[in-house]
């Protein structure tokens, strides 16, 4: 084994081999793959091999589509069989609610260019003759889905990489990472030290502990995962589609005339709490028929022949799962040159091709080449590496594969975790909490109610909160905002390069700005407040704390400035509405500034920073309160009689106003021209991505309709997809649903929206439905 390589990939499963294959394809062949056992001996070998294309976002769907293309051509390229078969898949619904979800899935698939057909129960039975259908409502047929042999795929990827010069070293265990000056310098192994510039952690279940040794957080936890392989069953043929019965927690795949029967039980069984043993090659855990019973009982209901079929093999193979059921990809913010591809949540075979290419491009280009935010490792902060929290959360996340994809569905386990200083006051007032980046945040004030695809029971409560804000004032706890300070002689110079807007402003000014990548796409949007000649307060979204801190830190480069995360130091209270000035004047002697200003003011007995900005389209202030004064200030404001409100109201009001949200409307592949935010771009001073801000393939527009939308619906013109909805909410102010979305043609004024298979007329505009001139904001 060589003593130096440009890249060391740790893990010889399908993901590690895919990364190596794609690095070599891009011309980086000075790569060593280290496998502590044999290729595919960890999780890959016992994977079921299902490849379903559709994911919750367009960018993640594109990754899987690439996987299917790669698997289809890999055998011809390498001479190794892959077992790839495009047999299609059928998903069935036992309940009307599940059928609504499947119809939404089909509409979303068509918006992403995937062939999907809503079918009847009878048509599902024709595609899958061994299935019982009398208790089904219907289903969806996706002919582009398929299955593959995981071990064969891994060998084919490894062979393809080796032919381009990659070295694959089996029986070599990585024992630690050498980090100097914040960068990867090499890897310690059972066979000696390898110097390298880039390390790629594809170690599967071992990835968390391996990363922890280098000071890197990789939040995943193992859980036992089960399936059985039956003897041959009459009527089961090789071209049988993959069958998914999510209401029964089960899936079915043909194998040698029999069936692979597996699933995702709602209450999973964590494993490896004391660490993953070594060696653990081609090993399974003990059978657990009690844990598997809920899957098997439902499987027999769906395929009655299973009741008399012999069981050839019971597989209990542990796999790693993440807190949100999405895999982990990207460069670690803690250590430069340390990349991760792990935590694939039992979807590693489908994801490996696209994820391997995406990470290889990130490594070679020094930045992602597409929108990888849903899988970005930086969506988690170090707190997410807590083993106890991960163990408790993974009991739920495994089951999310087949759980109902309700709108606004909240995690139930390992909560509460992060709480605002005023959390107890909110709870006492009857708040219904949601979770964002571990924070408990108020969704609305009222009792928890059942999830639904229809008009929710909380709608009247939220409507009242909106009306209070629009007609008087409302108080919001927005403490979960991520907050940084950037201080130093060259803080302004660094930000001028990173920000689209001019931040070389007078002290006490708040600037809304984007930060772009080299392609002109949004890495983030945030507010920057100049609080001193050499100091700025930067405020961004709750979920973006780690990612934005990393992006800004890299962008500072050699400039003399220091970035500090001060999120926990301040509570943020939003006081919004036409009466907000009058309320503040009851509790403060300060002269309140104009829109876009920020100042320290007295508020009762406390001193707070009052920034006159808004995300709801009304006169208002964000109040930055030192954490120790938060309860006092909140009680002072409550004493004025102001209405308390939550994030569902904020969401509806920002959509009424057409305000964009990063991660929905804005992202790494959306330019200012597409976002309608060219007005936030300075004309003279250069900034990153400046030469690409006018690139445009689509346009963000406001949408109004009588349909009840949740986001993700497709937009049609003359029956053909022309865009999709990104965010939606009912607006009591407008009296209709308001939404934002992308359309290919920015001049479009009318369209149809496909909501669970039903078409509704929709009006399209580049102007906000509510107060398009922002007169109310600037009074």
Give a written overview of the molecule.
- With 779 residues, the chain is of the alpha+beta class.
- 24% of the residues lie in helices and 28% in strands.
- The strands form nine sheets. An eight-stranded mixed beta sheet has the order 5-6-4-15-16-17-14-19. A six-stranded mixed beta sheet has the order 8-2-1-12-22-21. Strands 32-33-34-31-25-35 form a six-stranded mixed beta sheet.
- The longest helix has 21 residues, at 58-78.
- It is globular and about 80 Å long.
Number of beta strands: 41
From the spread of the alpha carbons, the general shape counts as: globular
In CATH, what is the homologous superfamily of the largest domain? FAD/NAD(P)-binding domain
CATH class of the largest domain: Alpha Beta
Task: Report the helical percentage.
Answer: 10-25%
**Beta strand %:** 25-35%
Sheet with the most strands, sense and barrel status: 8 strands, mixed
User: What CATH architecture label of the largest domain applies?
Assistant: 3-Layer(bba) Sandwich
Uncertain runs are none
The structure class reads alpha+beta
In the CATH scheme, what's the topology name of the largest domain?
A: FAD/NAD(P)-binding domain
Radius of gyration: 27 Å
Number of domains: 4
- Give the integer mean of the pLDDT values: 96
Number of helices: 17
Distance between the ends: 71 Å
Q: What is the multimeric organization of the chains shown? A: single chain
Pfam family, one: DAO
Domain FAD dependent oxidoreductase: 7-362
InterPro entries: FAD-dep_OxRdtase, FAD/NAD-bd_sf, FAO_M, GcvT/YgfZ/DmdA, GcvT/YgfZ_C, GcvT_C, GCVT_N, TrmE/GcvT-like
Family: Belongs to the GcvT family.
């Amino acid at each position: 084994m060589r003593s130096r390589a440009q890249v060391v990939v740790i893990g010889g499963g399908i993901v590690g081999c895919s990364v190596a294959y794609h690095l070599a394809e891009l011309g980086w062949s000075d790569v060593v793959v280290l496998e502590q056992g044999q290729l595919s001996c960890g999780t890959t070998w016992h994977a079921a091999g299902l490849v379903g294309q559709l994911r919750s976002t367009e960018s993640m769907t594109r990754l899987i589509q690439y996987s299917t293309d790669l698997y289809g051509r890999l055998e011809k390229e390498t001479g190794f069989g892959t077992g790839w078969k495009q047999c299609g898949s059928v998903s069935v619904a036992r309940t009307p609610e599940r059928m609504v979800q499947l119809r939404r899935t089909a509409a979303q698939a068509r918006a992403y260019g995937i062939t999907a057909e809503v079918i009847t129960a009878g048509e599902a039975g024709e595609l899958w003759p061994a299935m019982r259908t009398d208790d089904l409502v219907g289903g969806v047929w996706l002919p582009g889905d398929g299955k593959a042999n995981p071990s064969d795929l891994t060998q084919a990827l490894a062979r393809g990489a080796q032919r381009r010069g990659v070295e694959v070293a089996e029986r070599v265990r990585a024992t630690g990472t050498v980090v100097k000056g914040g960068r990867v310098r090499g890897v310690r192994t059972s066979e000696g030290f390898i110097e390298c510039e880039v390390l790629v952690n594809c170690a599967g279940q071992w990835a968390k502990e391996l990363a922890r040794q280098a000071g890197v957080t990789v939040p995943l936890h193992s859980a036992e995962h089960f399936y059985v392989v039956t003897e041959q069953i009459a009527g089961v043929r090789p071209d049988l589609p993959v069958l998914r019965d999510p209401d029964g927690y089960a899936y079915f795949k043909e194998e040698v005339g029999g069936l692979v029967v597996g699933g995702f039980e709602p209450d999973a069984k964590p494993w490896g709490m004391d660490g993953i043993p070594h060696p653990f090659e081609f090993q399974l855990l003990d059978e657990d028929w009690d844990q598997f019973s809920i899957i098997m009982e439902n499987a027999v209901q769906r395929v009655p022949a299973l009741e008399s079929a012999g069981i050839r093999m019971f597989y209990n193979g542990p796999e790693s799962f993440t807190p949100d059921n999405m895999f982990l990809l990207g460069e670690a913010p803690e250590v430069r040159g340390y990349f991760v591809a792990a935590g694939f949540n039992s979807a590693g075979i489908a994801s490996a091709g696209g994820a391997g290419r995406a990470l290889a491009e990130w490594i070679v280009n020094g930045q992602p080449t597409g929108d990888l935010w849903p899988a970005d490792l930086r969506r988690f902060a170090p707190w997410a590496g807590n083993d106890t929290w991960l163990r408790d959360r993974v009991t739920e996340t495994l089951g999310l594969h087949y759980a109902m994809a309700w709108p606004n569905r909240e995690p139930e386990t390992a909560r509460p975790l992060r709480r605002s200083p005023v959390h107890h006051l909110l709870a006492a007032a009857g708040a219904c909490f949601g979770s964002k980046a571990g924070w408990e945040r108020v969704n609305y004030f009222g009792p928890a109610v059942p999830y639904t695809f229809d008009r929710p029971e909380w709608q009247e409560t939220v409507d009242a909160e909106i009306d209070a804000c629009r007609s008087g004032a409302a108080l919001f706890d927005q403490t979960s905002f991520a907050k940084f300070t950037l201080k130093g002689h060259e803080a302004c110079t660094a930000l001028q390069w990173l920000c689209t807007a001019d931040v070389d402003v007078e002290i006490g000014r708040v600037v809304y700005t984007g930060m772009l990548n080299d392609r002109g796409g949004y890495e983030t949007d945030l507010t920057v407040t100049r609080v001193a000649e050499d100091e700025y307060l930067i405020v961004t979204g709750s979920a973006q704390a780690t990612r934005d801190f990393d992006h800004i830190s890299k962008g500072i480069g050699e400039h003399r400035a220091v970035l500090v995360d001060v999120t926990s130091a301040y509570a943020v209270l939003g006081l919004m509405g036409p009466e907000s000035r009058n309320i503040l004047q009851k509790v403060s002697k300060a002269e309140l500034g104009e829109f876009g200003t920020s100042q320290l003011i007295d508020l009762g007995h406390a001193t707070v920073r009052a920034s006159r900005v808004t995300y709801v389209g009304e006169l208002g202030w964000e109040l930055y309160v030192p954490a120790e004064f938060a309860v006092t200030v909140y009680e002072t404001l409550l004493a004025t009689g102001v209405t308390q409100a939550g994030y569902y109201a904020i969401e509806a009001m920002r959509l009424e106003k057409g305000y964009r949200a990063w991660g929905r409307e804005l992202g790494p592949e959306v330019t200012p021209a597409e976002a309608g935010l060219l007005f936030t771009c300075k004309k003279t001073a250069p900034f990153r991505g400046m030469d690409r801000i006018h690139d445009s393939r689509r346009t963000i527009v406001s949408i109004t309709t009588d349909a009840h939308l949740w986001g993700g619906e497709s937009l049609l013109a003359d029956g053909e997809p022309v865009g999709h909805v990104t965010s939606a909410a009912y607006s009591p102010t407008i009296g209709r649903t308001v939404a934002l979305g992308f359309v290919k043609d920015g001049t479009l004024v009318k369209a149809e929206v496909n909501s669970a298979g039903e078409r509704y007329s929709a009006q399209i505009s580049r102007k906000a439905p509510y107060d398009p001139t922002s007169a109310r904001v600037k009074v």
